[in-house]
Amino acid sequence: MTTPQTTAASARPVELRSLTKRHGAGEQAVTALDRVSTSFAAGSMTAVMGPSGSGKSTLLHCAAGIDRPTAGQVLINGTDLGTLDENALTLLRRERMGFVFQEFNLVSALTAAQNVELPLRLAGRRPAPGEVAAALAEVGLADRGAHRPSELSGGQRQRVAIARAMIAGPAVLFADEPTGALDTRASRMVLRLLRELVDGRGQTVVMVTHDPAAAAYADRVVLLADGRLVDELPGADGAEAIAARMAVLEVRS
To answer: Under 8 Å CB-to-CB from 124, ≥6 apart: which residues?
Structure first.
C-alpha cells in the first residue's frame, strides 16, 4: 500500500538532513560538511559545485554511502543509511545506486559487455536475453560490446561506465567529475547522455563537477563553501552565470 511517506520518498530519492562530516579530533579536527540539508528530486539532474575543499566530494561520498557521516542522516528512497550495517549498505548501493567516476573504473580484462553485466553478476542475477546489448545500444555503443576498455576512446569508456551504472535500474545515479578526463567533444556527448537519461527515463542524477559548462546541463546547481550549502541556482542560467557565481565563492574561500 502506498503511504504519504513512501510517496515522499519516491519524489525525493535522496534526502540529506543536517549532514555533518568531521575528520580528526580536538584542535586538529577539520569539518568537511557542516549541517548540510537538501534533497534531490526524482527525475532531475543536480550539479554540486564549490571551490577546492568546499566539501562537494565528501557530500557525494556520504550521500552514496561510501563514507559514513559524523552526524545527520542520509535517506535513499526513505531508508536511513545510518541504520544499515555494512552488508545491508552494500546491498542497497548495489540495488538502488549507480556510480560513474572520472577514471571510469572499468575492468581492463573484460569486454564492454562483460563490464556492463558485472553488477548483475555480482548480485547473483543472470542478465535477461538482450539486456546488456540494449544497455550498450542506449549509450550509442551497440557495436562495441566485444571491445575491451583499451580498445575504446575515453568517451566510449565513460559511456560503458554509464551503461554499467544504469543496468540495475538505480533510484539515483551519482557521478563524480564524469567529464574530468575527457576532451570537450566527448564531454558534451556524455553530458547529453546524462541529460537524456533524466528527460527520457526519469532518472535522478547527482553530479559533482568543477566545470560550469557541465553544470549548465543540470536542472539545479547546488553551491558549497567551507562545508556549507551557501547558494543554488538553475542550470538554465547558463555556464557564464554559474562561472560568475563560482568566482565569487573562490575569492571568498
So the answer is: none
Number of domains into which the chain is organized: 1
Asked if residue 233 lies in contact with residue 248, where contact means CB atoms within 8 angstroms, the answer is no
Instruction: Say which residues have a Cβ less than 8 Å from residue 189's Cβ, sequence separation at least 6.
Output: 140, 155, 159
Residue 17: domain span:
4-252
pTM above 0.90, yes or no: yes
Within 8 A by CB and 6+ apart from 232, the residues are 220, 221, 222, 223
Q: What is the pLDDT of residues 81-94, one digit of tens each?
A: 999 999 999 999 99
Q: Is the Cα torsion angle 209, 211, 214, 217 positive or negative in sign? A: positive
CATH number of the domain bearing residue 92? 3.40.50.300
Q: Give the model confidence (pLDDT) of 14-30 as tens digits.
A: 999 999 999 888 878 89
Rounded-to-integer distance, Cα 124 and Cα 201, Å: 25
Query: Which residues lie below 8 Å from residue 198, measured CB to CB, with a gap of 6+?
Result: 43, 44, 45, 204, 205, 219
Residues constituting the chain: 253
Looking at residue 22, the DSSP 8-state letter turns out to be E
Predicted confidence band of residue 3 (pLDDT cuts 50, 70, 90): very low
Q: Is the pLDDT of residue 43 over 50?
A: yes
